[in-house]
Specification:
The chain has 298 residues and is mainly alpha-helical. It is 81% helix and 0% strand. Helix 2 crosses helix 10 and helix 12 runs antiparallel to helix 13. It is globular.
Length: 298
């Protein structure tokens, strides 16, 4: 049960990170937030450097690959979020649960019992319900507009590109989660994985910034306290997830479901921090998701 609690902490912290990302991006651009909080996260794990040695070459290569997967996933995700409606992103993000579950079954030879299948169905239903109200509202608004204005706002080719980016991000996050389980099944410790993962990830963003010749506003980044909060949540949550993956009895399929508990934080954060409306409907969706999680893990 301890590994389930660690994954639950990861899920709740992940929800908190989504709120911090939204706040942080009001003061800095996507690359500045991504690079600076990754760099800060690496600084936080630097004390683990003396114990990070003894990793096999194959494991170095796999960690480097995992870091590159997340590097690409985050850029795709942030780019998609910037352009796509949140309602559409909610539907697309549902695919992450399905991708991770399928990878756990087919690549790690995990099996799903009947309660876990029902749990996955409930989690999927709850996540799918979240954006439906926004999609209906958007469709009604579009019908009320003049044809000329509606045609002006429609940019199907551009939208299709960002839909693809969002799906790529979901697939890559599922790949990363599967790789975590594989790496932690060996003699690798959570501290070793986190140190080298953050080192490679920071290096990738640094090289990207140099190649793209992106100018960073260091003063704004240092003053953006949301990035600092995001960093702490990121480091603590990832450590909890790596430790959970180290338990032999832990399963990617179950962990994927528990991670969705973060939606509770984002729904409540939308109501009390961003003053969003229609919170009752979203809480109903969250209740369906929680019911799925309970069914899956009991």
């Amino acid at each position: 049960m301890l590994w389930m609690l660690l994954v639950l902490f990861y899920g709740l912290a992940k929800g908190g990170r989504e709120i911090c990302k939204k706040k942080a991006l009001t003061k800095n651009n996507v690359i500045e937030v991504l690079f600076f909080y990754t760099l800060l996260s690496f600084v936080f794990v630097l004390p683990q450097a003396p114990r990070a040695g003894g990793v096999e070459l194959k494991q170095y290569l796999l960690i480097a690959l995992k870091s590159f997967v997340i590097f690409v996933a985050w850029i795709c995700s942030f780019s998609a979020i910037k352009k796509l409606p949140i309602s559409l992103m909610g539907v697309l993000d549902l695919s992450r649960v399905l991708f991770a579950t399928l990878m756990g079954v087919f690549f790690l030879n995990e099996s799903m019992n009947v309660p876990q299948i029902w749990g996955l169905a409930l989690v999927s239903a709850g996540l799918l319900m979240l954006p439906l109200q926004g999609m209906i509202r958007t469709r009604r608004s579009a019908k009320s507009e003049t044809p000329a204005l509606n045609a002006t706002r429609r940019e199907e080719p551009v939208k299709a590109l960002y839909v693809v980016l969002a799906l790529i991000s979901c697939v890559l996050n599922a790949v990363s989660g599967t790789m975590d389980k594989y790496l932690m099944n060996g003699n690798l410790t959570s501290g070793q994985l986190q140190f080298w993962y953050m080192l490679f990830l920071t290096a990738y963003y640094g090289v990207y910034i140099l190649i793209k010749r992106i100018r960073l506003d260091w003063k704004k980044m240092l003053r953006n306290y949301w990035i600092w909060i995001l960093t702490v949540l990121f480091v603590l949550a990832d450590r909890a997830l790596f430790i959970a993956n180290g338990y032999p009895e832990s399963k990617v399929t179950v962990m994927t479901l528990i991670k969705q508990s973060g939606c509770l934080v984002t729904v409540l954060g939308g109501r009390f921090i961003f003053k969003e409306k229609n919170i009752i409907y979203r809480l109903v969706c969250a209740a369906v998701i929680v019911a799925g999680i309970v069914v899956a893990v009991l």
